[in-house]
Amino acid sequence: MPKFTLELSTEAIRLLFDLHGQPCVIGDVTPSSRHLDPQMAALHSLAARLSKPPIVTTIVVPREHVLYKTVNVDRVQDVTTQEIVDYICGVTQLTKDAICVDWVFAGSAVHIAAVEKLTLLEAGEFAKRHGFVTDVFTSYALTGQFPRQPVFHDSNTLKLPSFMQRQKPR
After folding, report:
1. Do 111 and 147 contact (CB within 8 A), yes or no?
2. Which segments of the chain does DSSP mark as H helices, in order?
3. How far apart are CA 29 and CA 42, in angstroms?
């Protein structure tokens, strides 16, 4: 199945296509453009030439909308997603219903990436409004912030694909 990525930022909206494992830029649009809707329609049309609709995409939310934290822990102790969510709620003053988290162990540290569900909702609605179907949300972390690309999903709206299941701590 062809794979598309829709990168969102305040400077540009970029549509990429996975061409034999290499990202290939299909096109860019400026979010502040007075012609945003027709330009997005043109991007969708280009994608439709590469793949039969629906155009299923990974949405990359802007890094500035993601909170990255690293917490050192005793590896003997099991860490649960609920504990991670509780920690982020305490740091951000957001409720557990308002955030999505991804986390991974690296040595004795837990790397956490958190994003507001409202951000995901807005990004997903934007994509949908322009004819794209979202399969997963992610972001680009700066080097050292997160050991891999974080994956966000809201269990109410998205299902985590089987190839992206969370790794169990070792």
Report:
1. yes
2. 36-50, 81-92, 117-129
3. 10
Q: 138-165 as b/e, with b when 16 or more CB fall inside 10 Å? A: bbebeeebbeeebbbbeeeebeeeeeee
- Per-residue confidence band for 105, with pLDDT thresholds at 50, 70 and 90: confident
> Looking at this protein, which amino acid is placed at residue 103?
W
Residues in the chain: 170
For residue 151, give both structure tokens: 């994956």
Whether residue 136 contacts residue 120, with contact meaning beta carbons closer than 8 Å, is answered with no
Helix (H) or strand (E) holding 14: strand 13-19
| The model's pTM | 0.85
Query: Could you tell me the CA-to-CA distances from 32 to 36, 45, 55 in Å, in that order?
Result: 7, 21, 24
> What is the three-class DSSP state of 98?
helix
CB 56 within 8 A of CB 1: yes
CA 80 to chain centre: 21
CA distance 99 to 97: 6
